[in-house]
Amino acid sequence: MFLTVHATAAIVITQGIQNPIIAFIIGFISHYFTDIIPHGDEQMFDKYNEKQKIAVLAVMAMVDFVVLFFWLNFLLWQNKLPNLEINLVAILASTLPDFINGIYLITKAKFLKPMFDFHFWVHFVLQKKPVAVWLGLSCQTLFFAGLIAILFLKF
Ligand SMILES: [Zn+2]
Known about the structure:
binds zinc ion; mainly alpha
């Protein structure tokens, strides 16, 4: 799932939380829960070899990061990040599992493998086999739209 969507989910879920440690924990856990939703990247990279996969992932992560940066600036401008420090802690924590994944893919550090495996496993809690990319991306878009609705319609 895109970092932008993970971060937005974390913002929504941690609304009203004042403690940065709790915001961090909830933000971190939220990553795995949101990755359960089919989101289109489950088999997107199967056609690449390991080196290509890392390169493609790195480019996608960079684009995603730029989008996230502008999205957060927009939310800030719209007054949707009223508790900025807590919001940033939650956002950071919610994107951390993907960075850990990236570090694992590059370094193959053994101590990160359980986290990598768990991260992979949550993707298949709801779906036995990966759904089609278009269907996954549609689910992700709907989920993102729902988060935006909560942010902008409820308050
Ligand atoms: Zn993930």
